[in-house]
Amino acid sequence: MSTVREVLERRDYATIGNIIDPKSRVLDLGCGDGALLAWLKDNKDCDARGVEIDRALVQKAIARGASVYQGDMAQSLSDYPDSAFDYVILSQTLQQVANPVTILREMLRVGRRMVVGFPNFGHWAVRLSLLTTGHAPSTSLFPFKWYESPNIHVLTVLDFEALCAAEKWTVEHRIFLAGSSRVSAMPNLRAEVAVFVVRK
Q: Mean pLDDT across the stretch 44-53?
């Protein structure tokens, strides 16, 4: 599968790819196999690099030509000076990090903007699953048993908006997705994935 196809098939990646300006300096935290980084480098001439903790994924990223090193994102961020990047990306990982606010603050220290994508636990299917079964939600978006889930924080669109307000961060863009469609009305109820572009 080509890198272009991989990026376009992941709606959050395709959305983020459209957000990033050409020739930007980009850091992708939890970059996986480097598909987005490679796409940004090849299609937008970005100076794109990433951090990934999984050794096998780092090897895949390097094999596709992405500049990625293995490490913990919290420790890695502390190595960078202020405003080292135009964008710092955290996609589908926020709900899995131990100290999300610390990570987000560091992202805005080392980057002029952060792009954050996360699954919306306020989606109607998640709510319905909990209401009807009485068990931790299990949906196509969240297929894990509670004891197997990598998600250690449960957040919704409204939760992230409230955090940005509390931290006095400026939200420049909000993109809400459900499957292959954009969501405009009632995103906290209808969006499966949210992507925010935020600056100080």
A: 96
Give the model's pLDDT for residue 8: 42
The alpha-carbon radius of gyration of the chain (Å, integer) is 16
Of the ranges 10-19, 45-54, 75-84, which one carries the lowest mean pLDDT score? 10-19
Which residue segments constitute the domains of the chain, with CATH numbers given? 3-120+153-199 (3.40.50.150)
Whether the CB-CB separation of 13 and 45 falls below 8 Å is answered with: no
Confidence class of residue 9 from pLDDT cuts 50, 70 and 90?
low
**Nearest partner of 117 among 39, 41, 38, 15, judged by Cα:** 15
Other CB atoms within a 10 A radius of the CB of residue 96 amount to 14
